[in-house]
Amino acid sequence: MSVSLSNLEEKHMANVSRETQDSQDNRIPSTSGPAEASPKTSLFLALPLEIRLEIFAHLLIIPPDAPPPSQYQKWPVHTGASTPPLLHPAILRTCQQLHAEALPLLYQHNTFLAHNALLTSLPRLRRTYDPVVSSRLSGLIRRFHVCVRLDAEPGYDEAAAAAQLSGKEEVVLEAWQAMWRGSGPDVLRLFEGVRGVRRAKVIGSVSGFEEYALWLEQAMMHEVWATVEPFPWDAEREDQGDMDWKLT
User: Fold this and answer.
1) What pTM does this model have?
2) Are residues 112 and 140 in contact, defined by beta-carbon separation less than 8 angstroms?
């Protein structure tokens, strides 16, 4: 069963509207002057914000030991669970204050799986989750995991990759191909214009061009305005010997 995150927005607003109306209807008029305000204070809201944020983190952030977004691997492994790490986004529906405090944690502190062709549009928290269709919510996402197929034409170009991924907090490029060393790094070169990434990683099927993968990581983490020296392909090919792939 797929899990939807973005539709919590509409449900939350409807619930808040009904709760507001109910509270107005249940007020008891006073006949002896203005009544003293005695609202029931939530014990949770009485906690310091720092403690509430710690609780939100346990409810809304996938643990770091969970499998990456690209995998269907069971988590946690020892329980034999067949579902992705359990989150509790229902906390966003309690009230407007908690919604405003907790929403950034869900979208800014989790790594989302980029769309194969649209990149940062329609991302998913995991493969078994529904995509985030709201552009407002997807705009909050700061961490992306991009599956880059080396032996197929991508649905984006270098300009789109640079425009959508530059300045993100984290970008992981996971290269893969159907046959080992069947393709070169040409598709990865579409990400050479990405800049300003705080943490960049190139993993997966990079055998034969490991030095280029390291160079690309550093290039993506350069400042947006920085000029990066091109990768010395001739030296790389001399070190690696004859390769089955050709640069275009």
Assistant:
1) 0.76
2) no
CA distance 119 to 154: 10
- In angstroms, the CA 210 to CA 245 distance is 14
Give the count of beta carbons closer than 10 Å to the beta carbon of residue 47. Answer: 13
User: Where are the strands (E) in the chain, listed by range?
Assistant: 112-115, 119-124, 143-149, 170-176, 199-204
- For 213, counting Cβ atoms within 10 Å of its Cβ (0-12 exposed, 13-18 middle, 19+ buried), the class is buried
Pairing type for strands 170-176 and 143-149 reads: parallel
178-222: per-residue pLDDT in tens?
A: 888 889 999 999 999 999 999 999 999 999 999 999 999 999 999
Give me 91's structure tokens.
């906390």
CA 176/CA 148 separation, integer angstroms: 6
d(CA 110, CA 112) in angstroms, rounded, equals 6
Amino acid identity, position 214 = L
Residue 224's alpha-carbon distances to 28, 130, 146, 195, 209, in angstroms, are 60, 32, 20, 5, 25
- How far does the chain reach from its first CA to its final CA, in angstroms? 43
User: In this structure, what are the phi and psi dihedrals at residue 147, rounded to the nearest 5 degrees?
Assistant: -85, 120
State whether residue 159 is helix, strand or coil. Answer: helix
57-79 pLDDT, tens digit per residue, is 999 999 888 888 887 655 555 55
